[in-house]
Amino acid sequence: MKVMAHRGYSGMYPENTMLAFRKAAEAGADGIELDVHATKDGVLVVHHDETVDRTTDGTGRICDLTFEELRRFNAAARWDGKFGFQPIPSFEEYCAWAAEQTLFTNIEIKTDNTFYPGIEQQVWDMICAHGLQDRVMFSSFNHVTLMKLRQIAPRTDVGALVLEDGMVRVRPGDYCKASGFQAWHPSFASLNDENVANCKAAGVAINVWTVNDMAGLEKLYAWDCEGIITNFPGVAKAWLDTRV
C-alpha cells in the first residue's frame, strides 16, 4: 500500500507548501498529493481552496489574483510564525523539485468549482517539460476533466474522486472501468466491503482519503487498498514498514 502525503506533510507543516513537500519526502512518503489552480494571468499554482482566505494572510479567489499578488501572501500564516514566510508555490516550482526526487505525484485538478479553460493541457505540458510523465497520476471531482486528461495523456492513470456520500449506491469498480479510469478515490467514510470487492473484481485501484488514525490505516491494510492519502505520511510509512 502506497503512502501519499496529503497536500504534503500537512499534519505537521503548512499544507501545499514546498516545506510540506520536502518534509514528506524526508519522511519516506511514496508520493505527494497536491492541488492545482490557475491564476488570473494563467500561472498554475499549488493550493487547495478556490480562495486564499483559509490558509494565508490574504483574501480573494485565485482566479481573480495574479501570480505576483499571490506570492505576497504567507501560506504559513495560520501557524503563528512557527515556519516563517512560506509562499504559495507555482506548479512549475513543484515540478522542478519533483524531477530531482524519486516519489510520484497525485495531481488533483481543481475544476470542480471553478472552470479553468485549457488547464488540463497546461498541466500536462508542464509535466512533460520536466520529464515527469511516468511519475504522475491525475485525480479530480470533475470527471469530465479526467476524460479530457485521458485524451491528452492516454497512458497516464487517472482516479475518480468522490465526496463522502458519493457513489455509495453505484458499483464504483464497474463505473471506473467503463469510464476508462484506473483508480477510485473515495473518502474513508464511504468505503465498505461491497465497494472494495467490486473494485478488486474490476481491476480498479483504490486510493483512500484522508486517513489519519491507526484504526483507518489498519482497515485499509486489511482491505489491501493500493494507496492511503494521509496528513501524517511519516506515521503511516513507519507502521507499514513493520508489516513487511
Task: Give a verbal description of the structure.
The chain is an alpha/beta fold. The chain contains nine helices and nine strands. It has helices spanning 18-26, 67-70, 91-98, 119-129, 143-152, 172-179, 193-202, 214-223, 233-241; strands at residues 2-6, 31-38, 44-46, 104-109, 136-140, 158-161, 183-185, 205-208, 227-230. The chain has an eight-stranded parallel beta barrel with strand order 1-2-4-5-6-7-8-9, surrounded by six helices.
Strand order of the largest sheet: 1-2-4-5-6-7-8-9
Largest sheet: 8 strands, parallel, barrel
Number of strands: 9
Order of helices and strands: EHEEHHEHEHEHEHEHEH
The rough form would be described as globular
Instruction: Give Rg in angstroms.
Output: 17 Å
**How many DSSP H or I helices?**
9
Q: Strands, helices and their partners?
A:
Blueprint: E1 2-6, H1 18-26, E2 31-38, E3 44-46, H2 67-70, H3 91-98, E4 104-109, H4 119-129, E5 136-140, H5 143-152, E6 158-161, H6 172-179, E7 183-185, H7 193-202, E8 205-208, H8 214-223, E9 227-230, H9 233-241
Parallel strand pairs: 1-2, 1-9, 2-4, 4-5, 5-6, 6-7, 7-8, 8-9
Antiparallel strand pairs: 2-3
Give a brief rundown of this model.
The chain has 244 residues and is α/β, with parallel strands linked by helices. It is built from 9 helices and 9 strands.
